[in-house]
DNA sequence: GTCTATACACTGATAGAC
DNA sequence: GTCTATCAGTGTATAGAC
């Protein structure tokens, strides 16, 4: 059977045409704008197609389904976030990993509100249940390392602590979305302080 | 123009027929089950109608729109939650209000997973933006009172603290939804301890 | 390889008969 | 109070033009 050519690296990823690359990028950009502005329901295939200047069916030529379009847009926004957070965490010392995680994540989401809404909408409306552990595990490891570096007794609370911090970050960012004047930097500082009291008692 | 009769109390609420009361209650119950089982999208008007033994149009006779059906079911589940939390908070002393809030809310949501998913789905899919302040303000007041009772210097952080706690509760409950073995009571204890360190330094 | 045209089943919603 | 009939809009599938 006929198959799409694969890249020279042979890593299994299909080699994309220039026009296809451009179209996909355009569709992702348009989708982020639409979802950020009108939410998941408001970003219909017809609306996406119209903004891109093509038809619904053409959109479904580049992506197998609407969920795939949204997923691609979601991953695009998400990769920018994790990239910045990873950089900040690596630049920080072992005992300051969690603080760098919190501050860089809150800061990034404040700087990019469209990406933020895109991520939230995709997370809450995508029925494909992503593993929740993927969300808290990286932070849990940072917390374990930081607690160890500070000489605290290693407890088994890292998971719950990470879940709490993650939920708190979501709430802070969400609040800023509704009240642009909300001081997220101060909120992040308070969260870091709260965690600091637990890590070095 | 013809208007529906209002109750003798004259509080503006329409007086409902017995059969209408029964139908609404049945539709609310059916909707909670469906939303909890299949999410917002899975609870179509046709599915609700079928489970209730009537047609789509009949459902829309009792409620003006699908959003109204879901909203009614949402409020039904929510009122049970706030009732239990309010009782627990009132039974606790002033300095233990936040702890009672956290433990009773987490406990209630663990005991009633169907209500929990109903509340989550309704919150995330209802575009009618409810005021976020309604979520954190009651807890913020409890925190202020408790901090005062413990002799802590009154800071202006009550809002952010309440937002953080609320987000943490959401994350804990959500985690329990995906992993039924997750120990939410221990998580609530940890959250209370974290807050306690801030309130009485 | 890229796209348009068309048709399909399903959604929430309305109008009017009984 | 509940029905049938109908509507515009949704995501999706297919055929075929270029």
TrEMBL record, chains A, B:
Top-level taxon of the source organism: Bacteria
Residue ranges the UniProt entry marks as DNA-binding: 44-63
Pfam families in alphabetical order: TetR_N
Keyword Transcription regulation applies: yes
Alphabetized GO MF terms: DNA-binding transcription factor activity; transcription cis-regulatory region binding
Keywords: DNA-binding, Transcription, Transcription regulation
InterPro entries, sorted: Homeodomain-like_sf, HTH-type_TetR-like_transc_reg, HTH_TetR, Tet_transcr_reg_TetR-rel_C_sf
Location of the HTH tetR-type domain: 21-81
Listed name of the protein: DNA-binding transcriptional regulator, AcrR family
Origin species: Micromonospora phaseoli
């Amino acid at each position: 059977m006929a198959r799409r050519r694969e890249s020279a690296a042979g890593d299994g990823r299909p080699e994309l045409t220039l026009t296809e690359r451009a179209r996909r990028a355009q569709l992702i950009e348009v989708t982020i704008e639409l979802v950020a502005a009108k939410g998941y329901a408001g970003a219909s295939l017809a609306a996406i197609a119209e903004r891109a200047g093509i038809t619904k069916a053409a959109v479904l030529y580049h992506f197998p389904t609407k969920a795939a379009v949204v997923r691609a847009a979601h991953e695009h926004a998400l990769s920018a976030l994790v990239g910045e957070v990873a950089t900040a965490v690596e630049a920080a010392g072992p005992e300051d990993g969690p603080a760098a995680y919190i501050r860089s994540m809150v800061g990034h989401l404040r700087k990019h509100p469209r990406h933020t809404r895109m991520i939230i909408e995709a997370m809450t409306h995508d029925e494909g249940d992503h593993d929740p552990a993927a969300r808290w595990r990286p932070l849990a490891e940072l917390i374990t390392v930081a607690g160890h570096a500070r000489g605290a007794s290693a407890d088994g609370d890292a998971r719950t602590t990470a879940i709490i911090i993650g939920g708190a970050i979501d709430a802070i960012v969400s609040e800023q979305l509704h009240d642009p004047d909300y001081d997220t930097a101060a909120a992040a500082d308070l969260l870091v302080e709260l965690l600091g009291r637990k890590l070095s008692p």
